């Protein structure tokens, strides 16, 4: 009975459609097409796209949807190339577009519908070369984190960049003599002081601020065991030294005060060395300075005090503690502390800045140094101030001259661009004021060689968009979009040395201003909320601020996170290729729909004689392109015979899902064509025949089958049940995985179980399930709820679960939803009150050698088509061969069923007529599968001989009959009978069964 019932769902292979005369015997007769003629099968979406781009008001941007490989990007780029062609022709020959459009109008198929060429010319005609603006970032003297946007007509960026570079260089090279004078004054300001092994060096930095530099050299190295005792003695020695200095102070400092205004002090200072160091404030001594004694008297008194001090220090146990006044005029006193076997080993530098020193933490050394440093500062402050004033006055005059020259030049140059003129003249005035205030500081920084932070770089221009050499329309293509390569970024600078405006890098949106922006994988932008919102802002305002999008710079942040430019122009037409996952995002955000028109590219084209010839034209184009780009020394590819093209048309027909259609996946067709031509060339043939295409496809299939055989071997080794016999609640479903060799089809066991007792339903995914698979099972539960609505308050009280216990790969897709539903219905036929073995014998089993695949929408069991149907069928057939369930001849071709092998795997005696191998699919996939099998000689022969059956169904009931071999009404009645045993009699009221409806 089962076989008889299945027979009405078994389908035969239909004859392939007859192909007409292609009009050529070889593709060598076809000249490569040009322009829009290279675009095949997308006339309607291209027309809509062009009309969208022609719009002056929103929606003037496009979001293109469609399957991969159908030529979305190729078509768009061909359109834009054609637009650019007309723009450049119009620039070279005014009136070209109008004359050409008049001729093109005569080719219209309908008087009110313009041709694609006319639409392209309309877009080109609306292009205004004046919209190509150069865009330059300038330093913002008022707010450095917001670089100034200078926007002017093409050709201005180069000129401004050169002028501002010359301004910077002129300021650097004009003041070397005066800077040398300042350096000399600083050199004369140096003094060196050495106290008790601590060497202090003074170096005047800026007399007007009254600051001096001190470098401290410290002797260390005492062993840990001696540190405490030696430290104690050193502190005692320091206390004695402090007392000695107090005794010396009055005579010494009064004498220093007298010398600080005399020539002898200057002469002695000039002979002292100059060094680097940290900072310390120099405080003037308070009170009246007593009269200064003579030099000899001071020296005598100092030596007398020292002798007394040395005798006291020697009692502390130090081997030597010497004192000497090296040069009295500078106030240099050298104290050397020598501890046995201890050598100075380390230098440290301490910094003391104006007003920050803590008197309680400073030793007597620092207090004395402050007093001595003040004498140096006072002596040189006047000379240094005079030198700095001289530089400031002279450079200020030169700054005015240079700025005025630039103002005059650019006022005239930008006479017709008032906005650009206003921005640049205002910036020049800000630059003038800043240079007047800081010119000495900037020049000193340049003189000191501080190249890591050039002071005058803020005068430089950062050219972001330069159209000086642009001819035609700007076209930007972004293959892997990120916020930074679209919207621009601010470069990271760890030390914050580079002026903010020089860190800006433009993105594709700015570069495409006045033209077109083409983005592949636009889902990346739609799924990033910040990027999506900013894209909508740009499309509305037609401007862009670099740095506005948070996280736009993958390398930014830190010191660059605060930078955000003034607005630059972004008058751009957007075209984004989006996969189907992005359609929902677009529908949820109304602003996206208002500013972007959806253009659906077609996955299939009519199977007409014209489109068949276009397949031949496509192949001719690909061969010509390959031969034009081939490596030097390699042979040309041969052209295709008409028979070979016809075979590729059959491949395209098989890849389409609908009758009377050819696939628009021309990337796949072109790839097969090129690789088949390489097969023919390597075999020494001067023309590609159908046999070469068949051979190439067979090689591809062989590589895939090797991987499929590995799957079978894995199943055998791991003890996975073979696809034989009958099981209750268990079914085999087909799936595909992507391997380097191609798409591999395989089957996976699904198991369904029902739990006894009322409760909320659960579909627990065990094994590896993706989100889409779980969604498909949710739809299956919806079917159960609609058709078993006899449960009190809720039709969803049944607790059930489906799992993939044998799957080693992730199953993600809703093509397992119908098979899971059939497994649930089979499991529901089992009596839960009886022992499992006895109950299963009474239940309705599923034949395991028929693999069922399909998707349901959940509403009363609608059936939807699935993807990769041929790959799944081929994979199931290959796995059956791998289990040894077929006899094969020497070539490996299937010759019949291996009954003994089936019985061995099933573990029982089975009649040959009861052994059925097959693949059940939705009826909407049937035509596609038939076309593809027709190109597979082995699988086609197996189907025609009845060794491998193809079944099609249009409802869940039909799928249930194919899987069980029993009428669906009988199975569902059995389910109805078992439901009270699972749910309890008290919750069952009535039944609404679809088979009872007339």
Q: What is the helix fraction of residues, given as a range? A: 40-55%
Strand order of the largest sheet: 12-15-18-2-19
What profile does the largest beta sheet have? Answer: 5 strands, parallel
> What's the β-strand tally?
35
What is the radius of gyration computed over CA atoms, rounded to a whole number of angstroms? 45 Å
Low-confidence stretches: 188-227, 250-294, 318-377, 550-557, 759-776, 791-796, 989-998
- For the termini, the CA-CA separation is 25 Å
- Average pLDDT over all residues: 75
- Assign an overall shape: extended
Strand proportion, as a percent range, falls in 15-25%
The assigned structural class equals: alpha+beta
Give me the number of helical elements.
31
Structure report:
There is one protein chain. This protein is of the alpha+beta class. The chain contains 31 helices and 35 strands. The strands form 13 sheets. The chain has a five-stranded parallel sheet with strand order 12-15-18-2-19. The chain has a four-stranded mixed sheet with strand order 1-35-34-29, sandwiched between helices. Strands 5-6-7-8 form a four-stranded antiparallel sheet. Helix 11 runs antiparallel to helix 12 and helix 21 (666-682) packs across helix 22. It is extended. The chain starts with a helix and ends in a 15-residue tail after the last helix. The model is unreliable at 188-227, 250-294, 318-377, 550-557, 759-776, 791-796 and 989-998 (pLDDT under 50).
